[in-house]
Design goal:
With about 650 residues, this protein is mainly alpha-helical. It has 28 helices and five strands. The longest helix is centred in the N-terminal third of the chain and has 34 residues. It is found in: Cell membrane.
Length: about 650
């Protein structure tokens, strides 16, 4: 272990950027330049530590060693760059670079209000995320975990309307108060348990904290309670059911925030925390050796209840996703399902399954960030948020919808996208254990089929259907699954989703949300105050109906649509500019979508990040053996089990668990 300031510098670089961003609020180009520079600097610091970490070096910075200040009795405020920490920090810092460019294009494209606050909060969230990655113990990770909830609140509540404030309060209630309380309680119990066998310790150790394993033999019940408290604390941000409903409501935020929440920082911090608990607090040996006595089933390992919850979550969330017509909400429930892949793979305790779970963190990040980038570009350029209004949109946005197809294939686990590699490793692990673990393998396969079921309609609608007539979208029957007009001609002979939905039908789209889900609204709900409002990137007026062509557009299906209760990202942009335009509606304009090339469908600030991240998802899938993330996953698992990875595959699972337990 080497004392080094770089873990601290990687955390602080974006914190310093906050001051520069705020100071440059009158100069947007400079303000956004600071965001990009901070992202590049953070990534450079992380990469500078990567080669040594791959060779077994651990970089550590300690408050006590640097300043002589003791943070808590026996517990230091410390940061360390170990293989698991560098794994998460590398992913977050790399994706922030492209998210910074995309966010600039998106926020300018919608002329959003309070952009300085937005970029400052964005920088703060990445500072907290890297702090979580490099945290050396449970106290340090708890501090950054709670800080992340606080600094992302302004992003969730960015629109400042009643819906955004409700979603923001729900987000804080779940993640800051709920998850934080669980995590703190579990941390205190681990502190007390380790104090029973010597000096208290909360420092992460590959394979589990040795003092905790010793204490668990004397106090098994308290050790079990602490384990489930820690899993619940991190499981809130990982959106495990029934702690997940905040995630769909957080879709009121601008799309770059949705990408941050779902692909990089918030939900991934929850999955990362679960990995720390399973791999470096308890360890597979203690989890396996500390069984629960379940009436009617006998003794089961602590991992089994976690695996069952994860398997249920990934199945149920996939089914719910099929019933969403709003694209971002469909992606939200997809995230809930995909995160449970990570938790399920980790909780199976098999080395192959663990590698698959760890590799699914970047695999999901690249694919899901691509999907949200695409959803945001569609919204900025066409104001369309509903799948039922996207027929033929592939000719209007060919690059965007091609990238969406790549991301969807990755979510479904289709080769050669990265999601195939991660899920393949998890299936190998489940099959090698056998027995009841075949149920978990079945859940993985079922969810893959469901992924295809709820993503294929989007792709099919975009590329293989026309605006004037197309099939029902989304998958399930009215009213939960789409518009009644989707299933044939109406009384006037007008076909498909371009018809005139009633307000009852449109409201019904999200009636199947869990209790506590907030209603949604769209920009159709807002009436015009002035006649001269236009989007800042209104490069192609045929796709953006404005007051100049209001008369013509009034005959389009979208213009005739009544007020609704669904929400999209443009609401706040219209509200806070003081200009409302009831002609800025989704769906194809009069005459259908105008055909564009991949170079003219949007601005480069949005198209370049979409292309790069989608390409990254393919590269991770085609060459996983050369991908640093897979190699890091091998190193992490080798450290946990204490033997080379090629040997781990030759040891039967029961023997392996016995060996690590001893």
């Amino acid at each position: 272990m080497v004392a080094d300031i770089r873990p601290l510098a990687a955390v602080l670089v974006s914190a310093v950027a906050i001051a520069l961003i705020v100071a440059s609020h009158r100069r947007p180009n400079l303000r956004e330049g600071w965001s990009v520079l901070a992202a590049l600097t953070k990534f450079g610091l992380v990469v500078s530590m990567l080669p040594a970490v791959m060779d077994g070096t651990v970089f550590r910075w300690s408050l006590a060693e640097s300043t002589g200040i003791e943070f808590l009795a026996g517990i230091d405020f410390a940061l360390r760059a170990d293989p698991l920490g560098i794994f998460f920090a590398l992913l977050a810092s790399f994706l922030w670079i492209f998210t910074s460019f995309y966010a600039a294009g998106y926020m300018r494209g919608l002329s959003e209000h309070d952009q300085t606050r937005f970029f400052a909060s964005f920088a703060a969230s990445l500072s907290a995320a890297v702090g979580i990655a490099f945290a050396a113990n449970l106290v340090t990770i708890f501090i950054f975990y709670e800080l992340l909830s606080l600094v992302t609140y302004p992003l969730v509540a960015h629109n400042e309307d009643s819906e955004a404030r409700i979603a923001g309060r729900k987000y804080l209630t779940y993640t800051f108060f709920g998850g934080g309380v669980f995590l703190l309680a579990g941390t205190v119990m681990v502190y007390w348990l380790t104090s029973l066998v010597g000096g208290p310790t909360l420092a992460f150790e590959a394979g589990g904290i040795e003092a905790l394993a010793t204490a668990a033999q004397a106090e098994p019940v308290y050790a079990q309670i602490a384990f489930f408290l820690l899993i619940a604390g991190f499981g809130v941000k990982a959106a495990l059911m029934p702690l997940h409903s905040w995630l769909a409501d957080a879709m009121v935020a601008p799309t770059p925030v949705s990408g941050l929440l779902h692909a990089v920082a918030v939900v991934k911090s929850g999955a990362f925390g679960v990995a720390r608990v399973i791999l470096e607090v308890y360890g597979p040996g203690l989890i396996y050796d500390l069984p629960l006595d379940v009436p009617g089933f006998g003794e089961v390992g602590l991992n089994i209840p976690v695996a069952i919850v994860a398997a249920f979550t990934l199945t149920a969330a996939s089914i719910i996703a099929m019933r969403k017509d709003h694209l971002k909400r469909r992606l939200a429930y997809s995230t809930t399902a995909q995160l449970s892949y990570i938790v399920l793979g980790l909780s199976m305790l098999h080395p192959y399954a663990m590698v698959g779970a760890l590799f699914h963190i970047p695999a999901h990040a690249f694919a899901k960030l691509t999907l949200f980038f695409c959803a945001g570009a569609i919204h900025v350029e066409t104001h369309t948020d509903y799948i039922s209004e996207m027929a033929g949109i592939g000719k209007r946005m060919p690059l965007t919808m091609t990238a969406f197809t790549i991301g969807a294939a990755g979510m479904a686990g289709l080769p050669p996208i990265a999601g195939f590699v991660s899920k393949f490793y998890m299936l190998i692990g489940a099959g090698d254990v056998g027995g009841s673990y075949w149920l978990f393998a079945g859940a993985l396969l079922l969810s893959a089929v469901l992924n295809i079921a709820y993503f294929w309609p989007v792709v099919y609608t975009a590329f293989f259907e026309s605006e004037d007539r197309h099939d029902a979208k989304p998958l399930l029957e009215f009213p939960k699954g789409g518009l009644r007009q989707s299933y044939g001609a109406d009384d006037d002979g007008v076909a498909a989703d371009g018809g005139e939905p009633s307000s009852e039908e449109r409201r019904s789209d999200d009636d199947d949300d869990e209790p506590g889900d907030t209603p949604e609204t769209t920009d159709e709900q807002h009436t015009a105050d002035t006649d001269d409002y236009e989007y800042a990137v209104d490069k192609y007026p045929s796709d953006h109906t404005t007051s100049d062509d209001a008369d013509a557009s009034s005959t389009s299906p979208a213009a005739q649509a009544p007020e609704t209760d669904e929400h999209d990202d443009a609401v706040a942009a219209v509200d806070h500019h003081g200009d409302h335009d009831d002609h800025l509606t989704g769906g194809p304009p009069v005459g259908g979508w105008q055909r564009h090339s991949p170079f003219t469908e949007s601005t480069w600030l949005m198209l370049a990040p979409i292309a790069v991240i989608a390409t990254g998802a393919v590269v991770l899938g085609i060459g996983p053996d050369y991908a640093v993330f897979l190699e890091l996953a091998f190193r992490i698992v080798e450290g946990v089990f204490g033997m080379p990875f090629d040997q781990l595959g030759t040891v039967p699972f029961d023997e392996l668990m016995t060996e690590v337990t001893n």
